[in-house]
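Many introductory courses stop at the sequence. We go one step further.
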Amino acid sequence: MLLAHPAVLRELVARYESLCTASQELALAPDLKRRLDDVTYTLCVTTGTRHLDQALAAARARLAATAAVTATAAATVTAAAGAAPAAAGTAT
């Protein structure tokens, strides 16, 4: 299965949340409802789900997994960078 890029998912979730907030603060104008329906549909398509709650859960899980992998990779790079000067100094 193809997976949406985390940046795309992040933007879709943020847009959905923003539109939900706007729809609670204002009367649900036809344009706002259409944009909310559009982002809901796009979230479902990009996550391979049929229901909004499943789409949001899948998107958030993917973003959390991506963040965990990124944090692990950053820690590995930092540890390797810290160890590199010591190893280079002992080689001479």
